[in-house]
Amino acid sequence: xxxxxxxxxxGPLQPSCPRxxxxxxxxxxxxxxxxxxxxxxxxxxxxxxxxxxxxxxxxGRWPGAAECFEFGWTYGDDGLPDLNRLMATATWDPxxxxxxxxxxxxxxxxxxxx
Length: 114
Known about the structure:
By secondary structure, the chain is of the alpha+beta class. The protein contains 3 helices and 4 strands, in the order αββαββα.
């Protein structure tokens, strides 16, 4: 399976969200499953309506893909972003609106399986 170009670290941006079809720089629709809660990093769809997070804007890249490439967390021949590892290992920074790598996390996937 070949990764879509907009999932690759240097691929072109996806001009619109693959779920709600808003253009880059625009707020996702309320029901969009791609939109993130900027307070927690989780899906915005179905989260607590009392949450004080601001609305998420489509950037042209899948949420978390940039951090996966930055941390070297990819898999497969196409270098797909390992979003599952990101969600399980990284910490959401609600101020920077991005995932951060734990400081003590210096192991590779091979070392983790030992």
